[in-house]
Write a structure and sequence with these properties.
This protein is mainly alpha-helical and 187 residues long. It is 62% helix and 8% strand. The protein has helices at residues 12-23, 25-29, 33-38, 48-54, 78-90, 94-104, 120-181; strands at 2-4, 59-61, 67-71, 74-77. Strand 3 (67-71) and strand 4 (74-77) form a beta hairpin.
């Protein structure tokens, strides 16, 4: 079984990024293409592999149903290619088979590298930069919290003074209100 994304059905933005990765040096040399695709950041900042998965654009298909066409005259199933790769890993005569296949292709060109593919070093650098920004933001938030604490303490002191003022003026107000409510004598 293998995972396939049909290029005809991909949205243009995703299609462009996936094809750039496929044609890149990283995409061509990766033992597992998903690892190269995982390192691609799309124009909107999302991860290309995650976007494909989240959009439901990856389908699971048997390898004998996937046909590769390295050139116009050669067709080979993914199952056969996987067997050749396994033989190469075991050190059998796969090199001869691959050389025969390569002779049938007319021209091979080096794939251009794409700058959007992130290396492990790039990811580590980004994480360090992000943590430095977060530290700075945390320091600013702590400073702001200290300022708010000081303002709250100041306001609490002001409230106490106002309560004292209200306590001394309350009897005066009560006496004034009592005078207003007192019955007046009519002749």
């Amino acid at each position: 079984m293998c995972l396939v994304a049909y290029s005809d059905s991909l949205p243009p933005m995703i299609h462009e990024e996936v094809m750039r990765c496929v044609e890149s040096n990283a995409g061509q040399t990766a033992e597992v293409f998903a690892e190269a695709l995982f390192r691609v950041t799309m124009k909107d900042g999302t991860n290309a592999l995650n976007s494909l998965h989240a959009s439901g654009l990856i389908k699971k298909i048997p390898t004998n149903q996937v046909t590769l066409t390295p050139n116009a005259s050669t067709k080979v199933t993914l199952e056969e290619v996987n067997k050749i790769i396994e033989e190469m890993e075991r050190g059998k005569q796969a090199n001869k088979k691959l050389n025969d296949m390569n002779r049938s292709t007319k021209a091979t060109t080096a794939a251009p590298s794409i700058p959007d593919v992130l290396t492990d070093e790039d990811l580590a650098r980004q994480r360090r930069e992000q943590s430095a920004r977060m530290r700075q933001q945390a320091a600013e938030l702590l400073k702001e919290a200290d300022t708010l604490d000081q303002e709250a303490a100041t306001l609490a002191g002001t409230t106490t003074i106002n309560e004292k003022t209200d306590a001394t003026t309350a009897p005066k107000r009560a006496a004034a209100n009592a005078r207003k409510k007192a019955p007046t004598a009519k002749s």
